[in-house]
Amino acid sequence: MAEDILSQSEIDSLLSAISTGEMDAEELRNDKEKKRVRVYDFKRALRFSKDQIRSLARIHENFARLLTTYFSAQLRAYVNISVASVDQLPYEEFIRSIPSMTILNIFSVQPLESRILLEANPNIAYAMLDRVLGGRGESVNKVENLTEIETTLMSKLFERALGNYQEAWGSIMEIEPVLEEFEVNTQFLQMVSPNETVVVVSLNTTIGETSGMLNICIPQVVLEPIVPNLSVHYWMQQKQLKERDPKEYQALTKTVEKTKVEVSAELGNTDISIDEFLHLKKGDTIQLNQPVDKPLQLKVGREDKFLVQPGKVKNKIAVQVLETLEREEKDDEG
């Protein structure tokens, strides 16, 4: 844990206070020892490591970017959404931290168990609704008196936004978010037991001149099956080994198959001096190191790939493939 660094003037003032008796050195020492003791609340058990929390933060940073684009298009207004915090706390504490009357979207995420909650602050929710209905995006909090039309419009707006949540999770696993309930009163909401740990992702949201929070509450039971997938190692591995698109792979294969490569059969080689080379004349014979009764090597590019025997096909010089050269065999020969 990082400690505060005192400036020289603060150090001088501290020493002066101790020397004049304004501060007691023994009292300072006791305070320092007390700070070493950390209070642990067993009711607020930490179920996820910092590494896993960072992975969840990355997923929701991607979701925030997608959501910014989605709401900007839907509302035709300036929208900015960013991750403010990612915390793990008891479900009861989360419920106490949000307004008793607010916008609650409860959705399932098959194939994962349980459900996830997307809570929208009424100021933000009504600013969105006002834009959908052609207004300037002004917020009037009347969450207790939502009409059927307003409820339908608002729930549809958030339901379509869940497609972005599916895309944000794509690097970890395929999920199918489905909006199941739309509530406004937290008293009618009981997703998990009060003491169960949940991860709460808070998103700073600005629509025009109105700002507020979107909170995503993910129960521990939802994340338990995919905890190993939240490590940085898995994240990077999935990024590198992302499954190929079959159509894209097929198109690439056809392109590679049409690529032309140089193929050559080497009759043999030998070494001669420059003087011998300069004095070569018609009728001279150069002895190669290739025995007549041994197969030749066929090169594809610069690599030896096949053993072949020379011959003719329709009065044209040709070779017949006898055997494929394995890379290990070539390495052993080298």
From TrEMBL:
Q: Where in the cell is it found?
A: Bacterial flagellum basal body; Cell membrane
The lineage's top-level taxon is: Bacteria
Name the InterPro entries on file: CheC-like_sf, Flag_FliM, FliN-like_C, SpoA-like_sf
Q: Which GO terms describe its cellular component?
A: bacterial-type flagellum basal body; plasma membrane
Tell me the CDD domains matching this sequence: FliM
Q: Where is the Flagellar motor switch protein FliN-like C-terminal domain?
A: 256-325
User: What keywords would UniProt list here?
Assistant: Bacterial flagellum, Cell membrane, Cell projection, Chemotaxis, Cilium, Flagellar rotation, Flagellum, Membrane
User: Pfam families attached here?
Assistant: FliM, FliMN_C
Report the record's Gene Ontology biological process terms: bacterial-type flagellum-dependent swarming motility; positive chemotaxis
Its predominant location is other
GO molecular function terms noted in the UniProt entry: cytoskeletal motor activity
Q: What is the topology of this protein in the membrane according to its UniProt annotation?
A: Peripheral membrane protein
Q: So what family is this one in?
A: Belongs to the FliM family.
Return the protein name: Flagellar motor switch protein FliM
Q: What lineage is on file?
A: Bacteria, Bacillati, Bacillota, Bacilli, Bacillales
- Quote the gene name from the UniProt entry: fliM
